[in-house]
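Exam revision sheet. Question 4 asks you to relate a sequence to its structure. Input first:
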Amino acid sequence: MAISAGARRRLEIQGFVGLDDVTLAEAEPWLRFTPAVCTVLMALGTAFALPELLWALAPFAALGAVFPKHPFDFVYNYGLRRLTGTKALPPNGAPRRFACGMAAVWLAATASAFMAGAPAAGYALGGVLTSVALLVSATHVCIPSMIYGVLFGRRRETVGA
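Answer key, structure tokens:
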């Protein structure tokens, strides 16, 4: 298994550093799982103006910010990977956890806008949030992780440590 230099760079920006090519190549497609699930739920909550769904998703994002595994990573690690025959996902580095923290705050703001009777603001906030989540789901380009790099520098932490 090989991983392209571009894919490696995009994943390293998210904090997946210190992993050998084989490990990273095997994990690469599955590192899209959690962002994809979040994207679908954000899109549904935004499209149908469902603040309850957005509020329900916010604690999951917050847990993903605090712990090295997002709750949806456990769905993959203890369920789906048994079907795919692949290894568990590596822990999330600080940039990806920062992204989860930003998502938690953004989800709360989006839900609040809908609850406050400001649907235009809710759709705008939710649309941007969903677009950013879709980008990372589809390409591993994570804008919040890039923001982390600008704010805190691109530390070469090892996620497995």
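Marking note for examiners. The chain has a mean pLDDT of 95.
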